[in-house]
Design a protein that fits this description.
Layout: E1 3-12, E2 18-26, E3 29-34, H1 62-76, H2 84-96, H3 104-121, H4 137-140, E4 144-145, E5 147-154, E6 167-171, H5 178-198, H6 218-231, E7 241-245, E8 252-253, E9 256-259, E10 262-264, H7 266-279, E11 282-286, H8 294-299, E12 307-310, H9 318-325, E13 331-334, H10 342-354, E14 358-362, H11 372-379, E15 384-386, H12 393-409, E16 414-415, H13 417-422
Parallel strand pairs: 4-16, 5-15, 7-11, 11-12, 12-13, 13-14, 14-15
Antiparallel strand pairs: 1-2, 2-3, 5-6, 6-7, 8-9, 9-10
Helix pairs in contact: 1-2, 1-3, 2-3, 5-6, 9-10, 11-12
This protein binds 2-phosphoglycolic acid and zinc ion.
Zinc ion binds next to loops.
Amino acid sequence: MKITGVSGRMILDSRGVPTVEATVRTEKGAASAGVPAGTSTGRHEAKELRDGGDRWNGQGVRQAVSHVNVEISHALQGMDATDQAAIDAKLTELDKSKKPGLGANALLAVSVATFLAAARGKRKEPWQMLGGESPGASQRGPKGIPVPMLNLINGGAHAKNGLEIQEFMVVPLGFDTFSEALRAATETYHALGTILDERNLGTGVGLEGGFAPQVGNHHDALDLLVQAIERAKYRPGEQIGLALDVAATELYKEGAYKLAGQTMQSEQLAIEYESLLRQYPIVSIEDPFAEDDWDGWAAAPERVKTGRIADDLTVTDAKRIKRAAGSGATGVIIKPNQQGTLTAATAAVAAARAADLTVIASHRSGETTDHWIADLAVGWEAEYIKAGAPARGERVAKYDRLLAIEQEFGSQAVYRGPGLAAGKEAAPRGTDG
Ligand code: PGA
Ligand code: ZN
């Protein structure tokens, strides 16, 4: 399936910031893909190319788009769109041939657009392109739908509300189907909106569509989530667990963590988590320690007895994932734009599987309305997917795509929730601890 054309353009992401979209044409059809971008990015992520200067406050992508239209377009002409590994190797080679690189944003747009064009040409759904070959496929069964982790309260770099922890999520594990789980989480989101409105705490939202209330601290936010779950008539811990993304790199300044007016070392922070785990049904904590605090991570299992999820620590990098598995992580976030090619992201999934880590496919805070991450999550057989609140177009696009895939699977669809709840690493804890 020969590539006959590649073109790129600037589009806006959900924050109103430029990003790159690419279209790949083959003899058998064309497809486009836009790339997301992070706000609280990790130091070890692949670098997206931004123009700098005054236009778009320095966030322009003229150069990255030009790389798609010129260098990449020339190099990919005539290549086989179904040979993802060769396409991604070529993209990586081009990226390395130029200082400072073509940009992870340029690369990923083309990498994913090629994947989608190949699927279209083969008349397959994108998730099917990974099925069977994806790591662990045989044991896990190919018709799994990941558990959504829905970010209902935004803080940190995603909201200007004073909450230091970035994400307060609900995790609807105790349901038989994805659609029922999504309904429960969404009813909880609406119940939370009602509670915030009644208490005049503000119903404005942050970058990922979660509410950004003016509350004092993370205890208040967690209390609100428990109250919202109950108000929606679900059982906290049993049906719907809680999860945090602390994004602790953002709290780490000059060798110490700043939280709740205190300056603390990783040990004290671990004690704070231990206390939260006693009070709330928290099934996982993402980035509990900073991106290079390997000692903090390694000591975590002693006190932080819940899912310990690496994001900035591992940045979808197979090598760092391997190291994280020996340093206290129980799961990893997989964000394709942290590496720039689909092949690298799939290698990261394989590294996670080899190390027995839970896989969480993830969006970014700056998103497009594309939903290819949902297909990747299904194809990779991810246990979880993070796609923000069940509101706003760029977030619901992913959940809505999973609803369509669930329908397509019909009676063979397996919602991973109950299985995970029974498993070791992410079992919801009762509110009584
Ligand atoms: P980001 O946040 O997309 O702004 O990096 C998401 C996350 O930290 O998981
Ligand atoms: Zn994160």
